[in-house]
Amino acid sequence: MRQRMIAYHSTLSSLRLQRGDLAHFVTMEQIIVSTSHLFGAGYGRARMEGLTEAHDALERSLRAAMASGVWGIDQATSELFAELLTLHGEQLRVAPLEAVTRFSQPGRLSRADEIRSVHQVAA
To answer: According to the lineage, what is the superkingdom (predicted)?
Structure first.
């Protein structure tokens, strides 16, 4: 888990320095999804709005990167992702390996996506 967190912080650093690429954005999405599911399973303290905000910031940043060719994030997004990594690091310390593995698999919707789709249907 320590190596995983080092890799995650390296990803954030690359994005912060405007030297990322699509793989860095995919990694951040995987972190958001995993964090969201671990939170839903009772690991870590977070606000669902914060997880949704992180997901929305990632989507905005990805659209901006694709339009500009500069693969990075702004300061506000950087701070938001730093908080996300702090939460995720706490989760990795307390959650059983089975839960971490289950919720780290690609292809899962985040709880933020699930909530967003409910809000869109209700609107």
So the answer is: Bacteria
